[in-house]
Design brief:
This protein has one domain: Rossmann fold, CATH 3.40.50.360. Helices cover about 35% and strands about 20% of the residues. It is built from seven helices and ten strands. The strands form two sheets. Strands 1, 2, 3, 4, 5, 6, 9 and 10 form an eight-stranded mixed sheet that branches. A hairpin with a 4-residue loop joins β1 and β2. α1 packs parallel to α6 and α2 crosses α3. The longest helix has 19 residues. It binds flavin mononucleotide. The site of flavin mononucleotide (FMN) has 17 residues, from α1. The site of flavin mononucleotide has 17 residues, from α1.
Length: about 240
Amino acid sequence: MFSMTTIMLVSNGSGLFPTEAYEEETMHEHNRFNILRVDSSVRREQSITRKLGDEVVQRLMRDHPEARLTLRDLADPVDFIDADWVAANLTDPAERDESQHLALAESDRLVAELDAADAIVLTTPVYNFSVPAALKAWIDMICRARLSFHYTAKGPQGMLRDRPAYLVMASGGMPFGSPVDFVSGYLRHIFAFIGIQDVRMVQAERTGGGVTASERAARAMIDAWLPRAAVATTARYPAQEIAS
Ligand SMILES: Cc1cc2nc3c(=O)[nH]c(=O)nc-3n(C[C@H](O)[C@H](O)[C@H](O)COP(=O)(O)O)c2cc1C
């Protein structure tokens, strides 16, 4: 299964609106700021991570009104890697046969999509002390030896250029930074592993104990990374309206 939506939003000063420039499977355009948004909550409605992700994207679009926004919604999951995938990846690219190119095609696309981004907004709930399985499947697809990282005498080295990655996360009860927070450190490590060091955390914790308070705390983190505009705009960008 493989689906991607690229959609362009424009700001008219009072909000963000999709334009007719809706394209399926459009790849990187040079000279345009590219935002990749990856969502992983299974909930398309009432998701706190998606709501906070909307706010981060709105602020990025405010700062880059001509940006191209690519949506990767893992509620439509990517494939799991399998034995054919591993074998193909271990084969020298020049030696791969057609079936091996096919086995890696989705992963190639996902790495290219990530590499084309000038800013990444990744949203994730905590599921059972870790990330949703769909996000782990995406991570397995984008961590590619000789494509997104490689081994050197000094150990593994990331191959993607650094860029801001906003990691938006929410937990029902787990305090972020606690000994059982296996999400923040893991995601920070994965991004650094492929070369992306500029990780910016937005965390709504203990949403079960009071959504408003935890959202307020997360919003303060968004403010710290992307300060509010002097003139407030009316945000109008619910992700579920335009998700593929
Ligand atoms: C299957 C599942 C597992 C969860 N596991 C945890 C957990 O281990 N720790 C925790 O603090 N919250 C856990 N939660 C709560 C979610 O992290 C929390 O409700 C979060 O806000 C969900 O994100 P969303 O609102 O974007 O869907 C879990 C929720 C679900 C649905």
